[in-house]
Predict the 3D structure of the following.
Amino acid sequence: MKLAAYRIRCMARARGLTLAKLLEHAGVSRTAYYSLARRPSVLPNSVHAIAGALGLHPVEILEEPSAVMDDTVAARIDEARAICEKEPRASFENVWHTLCLLASPPVERLNRSLTRGRTASIHG
Amino acid sequence: MAAPPPFTDKEAAFLRALVDERVEFMVVGLAAAALQGAPAVTQDIDLWLADRSDPRFREALRKVGASYVPPSMNNPPLLVGGGTELFDIVVNMHGLGPFEQEVKRAIRIRLGDVEIPVLPLDRIIASKRATGRPKDRAILPALEDTLRTLRSRHKRDG
């Protein structure tokens, strides 16, 4: 994945900026920018190596940092998996939903239950 | 615009009045299960009272401007007015011991500024098993999985 130098210039111009001004706003030195722009890939070699070992393009093993998939969510998924491993009869979905509900205060859990009960009541 | 949540200050005021008047009660049923983290859906909050003729219960109702309608041939006991419509009065809890015995196991859960007694999940499950109604049987797996989750947490946290 190479830096799209021409596209960056065009986008800067469209916003009324020279490349120098853009770099100044971004807090990136000209040396760092041109060093990046010259590289055949801005991704570390290890990313290419892992993707290659999987027979994938590097972009396929990258993801945006997500507000949802943070450490808390990852820990909750691990906890749900661990419970289901110890309790083979447990449904991952039920355990997962319980862990999500336990993360909110009791009044929110109650309101969630009642709100859903108003729209689609199965259980009384 | 989203509808306001069903449990508002009015409902909380009624529970606070019950606690302030020292009425012997517990939240039971699926609302109690939801409070403990079960992914359960319900339309009302079931209250199990030690004694429906307790004058303290009448006083709590009076405080919030509500009334008690005793059961008759065609209708169960009802609460009307003062934000009490969300609450149902439970007369019998199948598969459980008497109120005096069960209330000793009640857990206390904080709802806003009031702490209320709630029937523990294992006893809710026992009651649902005992009724044997299809809708109760249907929710049992979810309740049992919540209980497994709570026990796992309890073991982990000591």
